[in-house]
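Collaborator request, handled under Task 6.
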Amino acid sequence: ICCLFFSRLIFGTLYPAYYSYKAVKSKDIKEYVKWMMYWIIFALFTTAETFTDIFLCWFPFYYELKIAFVAWLLSPYTKGSSLLYRKFVHPTLSSKEKEIDDCLVQAKDRSYDALVHFGKRGLNVAATAAVMAASKGQGALSERLRSFSMQDLSTIRGDSSSTVPPSVTVRTSSKQSQPKPSRSASEGTGSSGKH
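Structure tokens returned to the collaborator:
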């Protein structure tokens, strides 16, 4: 199946693409028309193949038949793409051209309206999300600053004074304002009482 896929890719797509390029470059109208008919038939074949692959893939030699069909389309002897285009595709498209054009215009208008509608909704959702994020972010920022001003500053100040909490430092300084009797002073009074 892999070999069939690559052969179809080479002969069904790359080979015609190169010869289409040569037709455009040489400005040969006959070759140009021939390759345009091929690409129209190939596009229809690829579209139909999407559905037939689902239902007919079990059919014996299904993939080989698809390769043979592409070769038949390309062959300068059979002129398969030219034959199918002139007998079936051109008359069908000519008779339905106005309806197809109207459907395409309506589809284009609907898709444009849908794009504008969903674009506006998307902008509204994005704007609402941005406002909500900003309001939540502002509350979170003020809460973070408040916690930083109360908790974190006391921790930072405590770290700079050899990890002693500030409340202990304050108590120690208030006790230092009242002199403590030293041990040597009490011993001195005790010894003077004995003399």
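The cover message to the collaborator said: "Helices lie at 2-26, 29-56, 62-74, 80-160, 166-176, 183-194. Residues 1-78 form one domain. Please let us know whether this matches your experimental observations."
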